[in-house]
Every structure is written in C-alpha cells, then in structure tokens.
UniProtKB/TrEMBL annotation, chain A:
Domain of life: Bacteria
UniProt KW Hydrolase keyword: no
Domain PTS EIIB type-2: 1-90
Pfam families documented for this protein: PTS_IIB
Protein name in UniProt: PTS sugar transporter subunit IIB
SUPFAM superfamilies reported in the protein's UniProt record: PTS system IIB component-like
Keywords: Sugar transport, Transferase, Transport
InterPro entries xref list: PTS_EIIB-like_sf (IPR036095), PTS_EIIB_2 (IPR013011), PTS_EIIB_2/3 (IPR003501)
TrEMBL record, chain B:
Stated name of the protein: Ascorbate-specific PTS system EIIA component
Keyword Kinase: yes
CDD domains: PTS_IIA_fru (cd00211)
Pfam families: PTS_EIIA_2
Protein origin, superkingdom: Bacteria
Domain PTS EIIA type-2: 9-152
Subcellular location: Cytoplasm
Presence of the UniProt keyword Translocase in the record: no
Signal peptide: none
Keywords tagged on the record: Cytoplasm, Kinase, Phosphoprotein, Phosphotransferase system, Sugar transport, Transferase, Transport
Amino acid sequence: MKIVAICGAGIGTSEILRVNAVRALERLDIDAEVSATDVASVGSAAADAQVILTSPELVGAIGRTNADIVVIENYFDLDEITAKLEVAVG
Amino acid sequence: MSFPLPSLDHLPDPAIALKATATDWRSAVRVAADALEAAGYADASYGDRMITLVEEYGPYIVIAPGLAMAHARPGADVHAPGLALVTLAEPVNFGHAHNDPVSVVIGLAATEADQHVASVAALANVFNDETIVPALAAAGSCDEIRRLLGAAAGADLS
C-alpha cells in the first residue's frame, strides 16, 4: 500500500497531512508507506500509489491518475482522515 | 546536514505578531512574511512567493478551521528555517470552502525540502487539538503564545 500526500510546495502542509495520515493508518491497523510531495511532482511520485491525499483546491491540478483521490478538508481532524482512508483502502 | 526549525515554545518575539490588522488574505500572509523577515529567517520576496503559491493553487493553505499555514518552496530568499505566528484582530476570508475565516496564520520558511520532517510533526501535535486556534487567537502576549504552543506540543495526542 502506497499513499502520497500532496500540496502546492511540497513542504509544510503535505507533511502535516502525511503525519496525520500515518496516525490514522495506525488507528486502522493498516500497513502503508506514506510520502509527501508537491503537486508538480505528483505524476512521478504517485505513479504507483493507491491513494493520493490532498485538499479540495488541489484536486484539479493533479491530472490523470489511477490512484484514488481522497480529499481532506481539515488536515488536523484525525476522525475525518481516518474515516476517509478507511473507505478508500478498506 | 539539516537544521531543525526552532521549537514552537521558543519562538522569538519578532516572529510573533499579535492582533494584527489585515484587510484581506494577501495582507494576512504579508504580516506573516514581515514576521519571518523581522526574525531574520527570510527576505520580503519570500512573502511574494507565499502569495503566489495561493494565487497558483488556491487557498489550500487554510488547512483547518481558522488556520492558514503560509509557505513556499525553499529558495535563496530563505536564510534560515523558521516559523512565525500571526493572530489577526479581525479574521479574514481566504476563499476556502470549509475553513474560513482565518484568525491564525503560521508562516513557515524552509531551506531544504526535507527539513520539515521532525518539526512539522510537532506542529501536527499542536493543532490536532481543535481548541488551540481560538486560544491562540485570544492570546494577549508572546509568552502566552509560547506557553500554549509548548503545552500542546508536549502533549501526546497520537
């Protein structure tokens, strides 16, 4: 299982999403590799990813992908992240 | 060798702006840029780049209710990794569908793309507590800001 968190610059917000996604996956007892990158690199970084985590504003910039795109509104809401990841990977 | 961001409970006074006046999201980001510049972390042009990022990709930097994390890529205008914290006298809208209006702006400057790893985990610890944004917005002194950030960063919320 490979999951990629993306933001516009690849620092900061995507890393927060990555950290909290790891916590959510621990809750779900799911083993996954989670990385963070910027939206311009998403094509290569997420080529073999099953799930892309991002915010509503960036969905349109992701382009074509085979991964499930999971949109997170509140990057600090572990309940939201856990529930949406459970649907995507469960 | 990667230099860590300064820890949250040791933010220097110049990196904190309390009850700042901002008329729109651009001026709110500019206040964060001014604080990063005053603390010696970045040049004013870094503020331009933080604004450009939002113009390019939208207000995704509003990552939780009331909280924006202004940042841009590492560059020559970043002198040292650093954080700034701004509270706004009156919240402003960034145009985010769920998390407007914003009352607290974090400014983040990094000199390397992988620098954030340890310190952003501490940020996540702080803001996973949903009471922290209103508490910060109401804080009346830099010491109170540092105390709130330090207490929350030390809590085990995982």
